[in-house]
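FORM 12-B: Structure-to-Sequence Request
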């Protein structure tokens, strides 16, 4: 039974080995992807495919014309847009002016002009048939139309016409056109796929082409011209004929058991590879070799209708019933194998690469896996590690009875096992250190094989070595050797002595150690199951998912020549930059944005393994081990293939209604509540990885964060002019240099116009002004009445006082007038003048309490009588003290007899302490007293009065007020102020 199972295993391995050998290296350069009706196409039967100048892929189907940006399919037909009259799109061409021509299966032609307008052509305006089979543009800009019943031409002015020499056309223009082709000389070729059915139009004449001599009665099925000018003809059933001025070459491009019956398309890509589309797959001629593509190695449908290459150098295949397939130039070249690859080592001595697999050792030479004596010897062994010594010996670490194997360049084989002194038979890793010793890590401890005498020193579990399952070994330049264990952290040896141990408790990210290596000088990176730790200048810095690594289990880190750090992890393969790492260490940022790669980038694998060893070769290529093979990343190759996405603003919606875009400006009617802008970044390499930033000037100051969303919405925008800007970047972080922009004008309602609030303010202001003016006028009238009443009452009261003295009749009124004149001359306000006037009018109200006999006494008053008179200011102030609204009246009544030198009465106030209003009234009172007749004297002359003021300024009178009175006297030349 065991023998039987062993035989089955050998057969299985042989089959797998055969499959590996049969893998075509040409296809490892490509990533495959296909789309069908399940993904959004209206049908799986593809009739034509092109890329227009904007970058969109247009796909002809029997369900309409489809526009594709890498993410979304948009179908155009008479049901999706009423401006189109077709259902099917059988042929699609973009002319040199950017107009899109769509030939339908039975509705003629629709020309979608660059400005958005439409022109229709059918048998009604000159076409021989409404079933359009192909179209092409000639050197003069005319469109040639191939139909099911011959050809026609449409001029640049969109008129259907017959070309010169039309009468020479074969078969009286009664044939089915399969292809129209304009060559570099301006000749038009017509392919009908019948014997003697290849026609050429040249020098205003049609003729049958008979230049193929190597095949009898050839049926030409397609025509093409390569970059060098040579013509290629597809000839039924599976031949390709190349014709140059000097030779004719016939190639058999069929393959498989059924080699095909039709060559439908011949295409030369930008790398000068020739692609031959057949009804049983694709044949590619490259580097002098044929590669074949059919269902056995990836095609969904092998009946190929057309092949094109887009601007990003992706190859597109239009199939008869399998939708669309795309071959993208892969970032990674993945080789699938029937085993897990645990380690990779470049052998510069033998000029090969060694691959350590779970079922043996593999050897790659010149891009292909080869067999040799070493691979045969290691067949069915589980190889965990492979490396080389400095003199070219191959070190093979195995989980087998051979333990650790060493194979010298001369073929000498030596091996060590537990019986020969190793710590264990299951060897995980082996590295030669600078003194020539071999450090061998086993699952049971570390063994040091001494180069001088072959003796072995084992280091097993101890107080310092808590785990002796050895995972990795690294030697520093100074001879210190770092040993990583499976759960016990790291211990460091110097001269075979343990000088340092590091664990999670001492700052490492974890204790399960996968790899130890430097990225730069003075750094040691330790990859663990819980993150990665960097030891720099005696400090430990750890990185995990919380720092943006996207994972906690980091298996290995490597640096490429572009200073990108590549990592393998339990989340896949990723890269980061050294600058990001430094900014984390320096505290400038808290998180890194790691970029992960997947099958869209060419990693068609189940992933990486935790214990495997990847490498960088001397060409700078990164080799990564996988659970089912290996993959290669070439920075040089990929650096030349980075271009930013083509960004397009596709549609604008205002409250769910599409808005017509005229150039780079749109006008929105008033009242729009929600604005939605739909956009795209056209890229067919990892389309889902395209990211966008948007900005609406006038609404936001800066771009948004990067997002994969392909629309943005704004609500409740204010009327005004805005500028929308869009930028994008692809999966390689290449950002568009120039943003796509549109200007958006949101028209206002009339009440949102700038002048409307101005008018409203003016109207409201006018109303308020009218109301206020009305109220002011009413208030003024009422105030005037009140003032008049107040004056009359005051005058009546003052008159009552004055009536007590026949010689002082009118005195209060005159003093009030003089006081107001003084106030005005002193520059007081109108309001202040009024207060002084009223105060002066009532300044002598206290005389009510003075007996009439004393007031009207004709002679000189006695001292006692004078004391009675001197009480009238106090009496007056007491009478007026109840009037709180005008305190000045009380002040004027009490203090108008105070002297500036303090010798007045009743309070003997001095200087500025005398209220100003009282000082003014005192001057006015004195003037009237001197210019009026009294019981005891006649009025004084003006000069005498003036002299009194001059003499008493500063003693009895305030100098400023006295000077003011003198000025008034000087102006009164006629003494009109006298009484």
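FORM 12-B RESPONSE
SEQUENCE OUT:
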């Amino acid at each position: 039974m065991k023998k039987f199972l062993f035989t089955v295993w050998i057969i299985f391995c042989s089959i797998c080995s055969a499959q590996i050998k049969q893998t075509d290296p040409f296809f490892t350069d490509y990533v495959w992807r296909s789309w069908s009706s399940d993904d959004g196409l209206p049908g799986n039967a593809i009739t034509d495919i092109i890329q227009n100048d904007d970058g969109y892929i247009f796909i002809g189907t029997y369900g309409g014309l489809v526009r594709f940006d890498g993410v979304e399919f948009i179908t155009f037909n008479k049901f999706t847009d009423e401006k189109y009259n077709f259902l099917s799109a059988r042929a699609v061409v973009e002319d040199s002016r950017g107009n899109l021509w769509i030939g339908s299966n039975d509705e003629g032609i629709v020309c979608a002009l660059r400005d958005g307008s439409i022109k229709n052509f059918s048998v009604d305006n000159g076409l021989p048939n409404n079933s359009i089979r192909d179209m092409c543009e000639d050197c003069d800009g005319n469109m040639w139309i191939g139909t099911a019943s011959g050809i026609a031409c449409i001029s640049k002015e969109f008129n259907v016409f017959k070309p010169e020499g039309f009468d020479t056309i074969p078969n009286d223009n009664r044939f089915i056109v399969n292809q129209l082709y304009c060559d570099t000389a301006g000749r038009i070729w017509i392919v009908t796929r019948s014997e003697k059915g290849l026609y050429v139009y040249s020098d205003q004449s049609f003729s049958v082409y008979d230049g193929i001599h190597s095949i009898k009665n050839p049926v030409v099925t397609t025509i093409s011209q390569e970059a060098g000018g040579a013509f290629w003809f597809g000839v039924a059933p599976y031949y390709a004929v190349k014709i140059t001025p000097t030779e004719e070459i016939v190639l058999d491009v069929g393959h498989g058991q059924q080699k095909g019956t039709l060559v439908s398309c011949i295409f030369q890509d930008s790398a000068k590879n020739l692609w031959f589309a057949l009804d049983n797959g694709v044949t590619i001629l490259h580097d002098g070799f044929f590669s074949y593509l059919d269902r056995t190695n990836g095609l969904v449908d092998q009946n190929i209708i057309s092949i094109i290459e887009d601007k990003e150098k992706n190859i597109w295949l239009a199939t008869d019933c399998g939708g669309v397939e795309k071959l993208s130039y892969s970032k990674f070249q993945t080789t699938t194998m029937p085993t897990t690859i645990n380690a990779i080592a470049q052998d510069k001595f033998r000029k090969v690469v060694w691959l350590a697999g779970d079922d043996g050792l593999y050897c790659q030479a010149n891009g292909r896996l080869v067999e040799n004596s070493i691979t045969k010897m290691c067949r069915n062994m589980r190889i965990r590690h492979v490396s080389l010594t400095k003199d070219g010996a191959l070190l093979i670490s195995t989980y087998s009875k051979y333990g650790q194997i060493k194979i010298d360049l001369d073929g000498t084989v030596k091996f060590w096992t537990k019986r020969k002194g190793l710590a264990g038979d299951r060897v995980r890793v082996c590295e030669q250190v600078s003194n020539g010793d071999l450090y061998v890590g086993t699952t049971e401890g570390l063994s040091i094989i001494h180069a001088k005498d072959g003796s072995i020193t084992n280091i097993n579990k101890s107080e310092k070595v808590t785990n002796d399952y050895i995972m990795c070994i690294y030697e520093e330049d100074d001879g210190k050797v770092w040993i990583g264990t499976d759960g016990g952290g790291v211990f460091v040896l110097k001269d075979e002595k343990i000088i340092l141990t590091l664990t999670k408790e001492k700052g490492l990210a974890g204790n399960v150690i996968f790899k130890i290596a430097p990225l730069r000088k003075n750094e040691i990176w330790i990859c663990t199951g819980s993150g990665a730790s960097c030891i720099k200048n005696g400090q430990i810095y750890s990185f995990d998912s919380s720092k943006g690594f996207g994972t906690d289990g980091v298996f290995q880190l490597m640096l490429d020549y572009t200073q990108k750090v590549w990592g393998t992890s339990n989340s896949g393969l990723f890269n980061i930059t050294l600058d990001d790492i430094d900014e984390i260490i320096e505290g400038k940022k808290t998180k890194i944005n790691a970029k992960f790669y997947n099958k869209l980038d060419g990693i068609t694998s189940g992933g990486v393994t935790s214990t495997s060893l990847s490498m960088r070769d001397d060409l700078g290529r990164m080799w990564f081990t996988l659970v089912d093979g290996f993959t290669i990343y070439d920075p040089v190759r990929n650096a030349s293939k980075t271009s930013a996405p083509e960004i397009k603003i596709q549609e604008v919606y205002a409250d769910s209604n599409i808005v017509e875009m005229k150039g780079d400006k749109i006008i929105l009617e008033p009242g729009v509540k929600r604005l939605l802008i739909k956009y795209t970044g056209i890229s067919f390499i990892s389309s889902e990885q395209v990211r966008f930033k948007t900005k609406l000037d006038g609404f936001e100051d800066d771009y948004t964060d990067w997002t994969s969303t392909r629309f943005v919405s704004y609500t409740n925008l204010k009327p005004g002019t805005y500028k929308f800007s869009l930028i994008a970047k692809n999966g390689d972080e290449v950002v568009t240099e120039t943003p796509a922009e549109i200007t958006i004008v949101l028209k206002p309602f009339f009440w949102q116009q700038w002048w409307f609030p101005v008018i409203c303010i003016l109207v409201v202001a006018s109303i308020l002004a009218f109301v206020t003016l009305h109220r002011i006028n009413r208030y003024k009238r009422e105030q005037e009445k009140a003032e008049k009443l107040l004056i009359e009452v005051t005058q009546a009261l003052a008159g009552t006082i004055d009536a007590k003295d026949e010689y002082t009749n009118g005195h209060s009124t005159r003093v009030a007038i003089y006081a107001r004149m003084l106030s005005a001359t002193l520059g007081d306000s109108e309001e202040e003048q009024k207060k002084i006037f009223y105060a002066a009018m009532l300044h002598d109200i206290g005389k009510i309490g003075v007996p009439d006999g004393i007031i009207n006494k004709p002679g000189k008053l006695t001292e006692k009588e004078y004391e009675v008179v001197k009480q009238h200011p106090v009496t007056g102030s007491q009478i007026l003290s109840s009037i709180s609204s005008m305190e000045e009246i009380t002040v004027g009544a009490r203090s108008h007899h105070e002297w500036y030198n303090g010798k007045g009465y009743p309070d003997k106030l001095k200087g500025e302490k005398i209220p100003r209003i009282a000082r003014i009234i005192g001057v006015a009172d004195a003037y009237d007293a001197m210019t009026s007749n009294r019981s005891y004297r006649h009025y004084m002359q003006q000069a005498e009065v003036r002299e009194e003021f001059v003499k008493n300024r500063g003693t009895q009178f305030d100098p400023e007020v006295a000077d003011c009175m003198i000025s008034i006297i000087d102006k009164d030349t006629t003494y009109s102020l006298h009484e």
